[in-house]
Design a protein that fits this description.
The structure holds two protein chains of two kinds.
Chain A: E1 4-13, E2 16-26, E3 31-35, H1 42-50, E4 57-62, E5 65-66, E6 77-80, H2 92-102, H3 107-121, H4 136-148, E7 154-158, H5 166-183, E8 186-191, H6 194-200, E9 203-208, E10 211-216, H7 218-223, H8 228-233, E11 240-249, E12 252-258, E13 261-264, H9 270-273, E14 282-286, E15 291-293, E16 302-308, E17 311-314, E18 319-325, E19 328-334, E20 345-351, E21 356-359
Parallel strand pairs in A: 3-8, 3-9, 6-7, 7-8
Antiparallel strand pairs in A: 1-2, 1-4, 4-5, 9-10, 11-12, 11-14, 12-13, 14-21, 15-20, 16-20, 17-18, 18-19
Helix pairs in contact in A: 2-3, 2-4, 3-4, 4-5
Chain B: H1 2-39, H2 43-47, H3 61-67, H4 70-103, H5 109-121, H6 124-142, H7 152-174, H8 178-186, H9 191-202, H10 204-220, H11 223-228, H12 237-245, E1 246-247, E2 250-251, H13 253-286
Chain lengths: 366, 289
C-alpha cells in the first residue's frame, strides 16, 4: 500500500511562502495530477514529496509513514525530471540499472527487470546507446524506464513532456497512461498544461498561489468548477466569463449582460440563484460549446441572441467564432455548415442550462 | 549578391587566420627547435662562428653525459616524485572542495569559493619570504627541518595548485544540471557516490584539465625549488639544471639545452596522451543531455 498524505504542508523560501498549507490525500495506485500556472507551488509540492526540499511546516506521509526527515533515497520513490536528467556517461542499460546496482541487487535480477521494463516501453534495442544518441521521445522513455525498473512505491513526474514537440507530447501522454495501466503505481504528476492534466489524471489537483483551489475528477472540474480560477483555467478554449447582473422582476430571475441583452434563468436554477439577486460584481460563465449557432427549435433554457462577429477560426470539425460581449472577447463553437462570416451579424444560441454564476469578490462559483 | 560577399569574407577571415597562426607557430616553435639543434652540437661547435641553425657534426654526447650523470637522474627522479605527489594531493583536495562548494550549499560557501580564487591571485614571489618565516617557526616549535629537503615541495606546491584546480572544478561541477544529482540521490546514491559515480565521469574533461595544470606547475616551477632547496641531491629538474650546469660564468649550453628538452618531454607526452580524450570530453559536454 502506498498512499501519499499531505497535512497542512507549508514551504517558505527565505520567508517567501511558496506553498501555503495544503492538505491532500492520494490513494494507493491513484494517478493524481497537480496543475496550475507558473509559481503556483505545484513543483515545490512534488519536490517536498520527493524529499528534495525541506518542509517548513506540516507533515508528509508515504505509505502511512511520516517522511519529513527521511532522505530521498529512503523514501522508495522514483522521479522523472523535465530535462530527463539521464546520466550522460552511462548507456541506457546503465542508466536504468543505476539505482538497482547501488542497492546491490543481484546481476541476473537486474538484467531481468531492465529487460522487462525495456519491453514495456519499447526501448529494448536502445539499451547499449548513450543518452546523446537518443531522440527526445526516447530519452523520455528511458527516464520513465529508470523510474519503473526500481519498482518504487510512488512515481513522481515533474513536467515530463514539456521538452517535447506538440505531436510527440500527445503520443507520450498516451504512453504514460498505458504504462500506468500496466504498472499501477501511485503517481503524482506535475504539469502546467490543463489538457495533460485532464487526459491523464484519475484526479486533478488545481493549485494557485500556493493553495489548492479544487480537487476532483477531470469531468467534475470541467463541469462543476468550485472557483473562478478553476473555471477559467480548465478547458480550452477557456470558459467565457462576462460581467453580469441578476435581476428579479415579479418573481422572475433574469441575467442581464447589458442594456439590450438579458436571458431568463432556467427553471431548475432559479431557487439556487434567487438569494444572489441584486448582488454587485457577479460574473456569468458559459463554456464555448454551450454557445452555438442557432439551429432549429430551442429547448427551455436555450436563449437565442444576435451579435456581430469579429473573427472566425475554422477548425475543420467546428468553427470558433469570436465576438465582443460586454467588452469581453467571447467565444462560441459553431457548426462549419452554418458558415458564419466575420463582420456579419449572426444568430447564436446560449444554453443557460450549463451556465455558472460566479461571485467575483469571493471567487466562488455560486 | 550576398552569398558571394559572404564567401569573400570567409576567404579573408581564413587568410588572416593563417597569417596569425603561422606567426604564432614560428614564435613558439623556434625556441624548442633551437634547443634541439643546440643539444646535438659539441661545445666547440656551439662557440664556433658557424651557421647556428645547422648541425655540422651531430653528436649525442650531451644526451649520453646527462643519462650517465647521477645528479641529473636524481633531479629527474625528484621531479617525478614531487609532481606525482602534488597532482595526487591537489586533485584529492580540490575535487572534494569543489564538490562541496558547488553543490552542498552551506553557511559561507559562496564567500569561501571567492576566497579560494583570491588565494590564487597572490603571486608566489610575494610568498617565499613569509614561507621562510614559517619554516623557521615550524623548526623552532617542532624541531622539523623543512629547509633543503625535496619533499618540502610536496607540501608547498599545493598552495599554488589547489586554489586554481578547485576553481576549475567548481566551474565544471556548476555546469552539471542540478537534476542529475537529484536523480542520483533519489536513485539511492550517497553524496560520495554522487561525486564518484556521476560528477567525476561527467566532469572528466575538467578533472583532466586540472590534472594537467597541477602537473605542469609542479614540474616547471622554478622559484620555490631555487629558494628552498640547495644540496645537489635535493634538487628538482628546473633548479638542478641551472645550479649544476652553470659553473660560475661557464655555461654548458649543450647540456643545458639537452636537459631542458628532456625536462619538457614528460609534460609534452602527457598533453599528447590526454589531449584527444580531453577534446572529446569537451565536445561531448557541449551538446545538451
Amino acid at each position: 500500500m502506498a498512499q501519499v498524505n499531505l497535512r497542512k504542508v507549508f514551504k517558505e523560501y527565505d520567508e517567501v511562502p511558496a506553498v501555503r498549507g495544503i492538505d491532500l490525500d492520494i490513494a494507493d495506485k491513484e494517478f493524481v495530477v497537480l496543475v496550475g500556472p507558473s509559481g503556483c507551488g505545484k513543483t515545490t509540492t512534488l519536490r517536498m514529496i520527493a524529499g528534495l526540499e525541506d518542509i517548513t511546516d506540516g507533515e508528509i506521509a508515504i505509505g502511512g509513514d511520516v517522511v519529513n526527515d527521511v532522505p530521498p533515497k529512503d523514501r522508495d520513490i522514483a522521479m522523472v525530471f523535465q530535462n530527463y536528467a539521464l546520466y550522460p556517461h552511462m548507456t541506457v542499460h546503465e542508466n536504468m540499472s543505476f539505482g538497482l546496482r547501488l542497492k546491490k541487487v543481484p546481476k541476473d535480477e537486474i538484467q531481468r527487470r531492465v529487460n522487462a521494463v525495456a519491453g514495456i516501453l519499447g526501448i529494448g534495442e536502445l539499451l547499449e546507446r548513450k543518452p546523446r544518441q537518443l531522440s527526445g521521445g526516447q530519452r523520455q522513455r528511458v527516464a520513465m524506464g529508470r523510474a519503473i525498473v526500481r519498482n518504487p512505491k510512488v512515481f513522481l513526474f515533474d513536467e515530463p513532456l514539456s521538452n517535447l514537440d506538440a505531436k510527440l507530447r500527445v503520443h507520450m501522454r498516451t504512453e504514460i497512461k498505458k504504462v500506468h495501466q500496466k504498472v499501477r503505481t501511485t503517481t503524482v504528476y506535475v504539469t502546467h498544461d490543463q489538457v495533460e492534466a485532464m487526459t491523464l489524471a484519475d484526479r486533478v489537483v488545481v493549485m494557485n498561489a500556493g493553495l489548492i483551489e479544487q480537487v476532483g475528477r477531470p469531468n467534475e472540474l470541467y463541469h462543476s468548477p468550485a472557483t473562478l480560477f478553476v473555471a477559467g483555467f480548465i478547458g480550452s478554449p477557456a470558459m467565457n466569463i462576462i460581467g453580469c447582473a441578476l435581476e428579479e422582476t415579479a418573481g422572475a430571475l433574469r441575467l442581464r449582460l447589458n442594456g439590450g441583452l438579458a436571458f431568463p434563468i432556467p427553471e431548475e436554477r432559479v431557487a439556487r440563484y434567487r438569494p444572489h439577486a441584486g448582488k454587485p460584481n457577479l460574473l456569468f460563465g458559459l463554456r464555448p460549446e454551450h454557445v452555438t449557432d442557432l439551429r432549429g427549435p430551442t429547448a427551455p433554457g436555450q436563449c437565442p441572441f444576435e451579435v456581430t462577429l469579429d473573427v472566425t477560426e475554422p477548425m475543420g470539425m467546428e468553427t470558433l467564432v469570436f465576438f465582443a460581449l460586454n467588452g469581453v472577447d467571447t467565444c462560441a463553437r459553431t457548426n462549419p455548415l452554418a458558415n458564419l462570416q466575420p463582420g456579419k451579424r449572426a444568430q447564436l444560441l446560449a444554453d443557460l442550462r450549463y451556465m455558472h454564476l460566479i461571485d467575483a469578490d469571493s471567487g466562488r462559483v455560486l | 549578391m550576398k552569398p558571394k560577399s559572404l564567401r569573400r569574407e570567409r576567404r579573408w577571415a581564413l587568410i588572416w587566420s593563417y597569417v596569425f597562426l603561422v606567426v604564432f607557430a614560428v614564435i613558439f616553435l623556434t625556441p624548442p627547435l633551437y634547443m634541439l639543434i643546440t643539444s646535438l652540437k659539441t661545445s666547440a661547435e656551439i662557440s664556433a662562428v658557424t651557421l647556428p641553425w645547422w648541425v655540422f657534426h651531430p653528436t649525442l654526447d650531451n644526451y649520453y653525459a646527462l643519462f650517465t650523470s647521477e645528479a641529473f637522474l636524481t633531479f629527474f627522479r625528484n621531479s617525478v616524485v614531487v609532481s606525482l605527489a602534488v597532482v595526487a594531493i591537489t586533485m584529492l583536495i580540490s575535487i572534494f572542495a569543489a564538490f562541496s562548494l558547488s553543490r552542498m550549499r552551506f553557511w559561507g560557501s559562496a564567500t569561501l569559493a571567492t576566497g579560494v580564487f583570491l588565494t590564487y591571485l597572490i603571486p608566489e614571489t610575494l610568498l617565499f619570504i613569509p614561507l621562510f618565516k614559517i619554516f623557521a617557526f615550524v623548526q623552532e616549535w617542532t624541531g622539523i627541518e623543512l629547509m633543503n629537503h625535496w619533499w618540502v615541495l610536496i607540501v608547498i606546491f599545493p598552495t599554488l595548485t589547489v586554489p586554481f584546480c578547485t576553481w576549475i572544478m567548481i566551474g565544471y561541477f556548476a555546469s552539471i544540471p542540478k537534476e542529475l544529482d537529484e536523480a542520483a540521490l533519489i536513485d539511492g546514491a550517497s553524496y560520495f557516490q554522487v561525486l564518484t559515480r556521476v560528477f567525476l565521469p561527467v566532469a572528466l574533461p575538467g578533472v583532466i584539465a586540472a590534472t594537467i595544470f597541477a602537473f605542469t606547475v609542479s614540474w616547471a616551477d622554478f622559484l620555490y625549488p631555487m629558494a628552498f632547496t640547495t644540496s645537489v641531491d635535493q634538487l628538482v629538474l628546473p633548479a638542478g639544471i641551472v645550479t649544476t650546469l652553470i659553473k660560475g660564468d661557464v655555461f654548458n649550453w649543450g647540456q643545458i639545452m639537452t636537459a631542458a628538452l628532456l625536462g619538457a618531454l614528460p609534460p609534452l607526452l602527457i598533453y599528447a596522451f590526454l589531449m584527444d580524450y580531453y577534446i572529446a570530453g569537451l565536445t561531448a559536454g557541449a551538446t545538451k543531455g
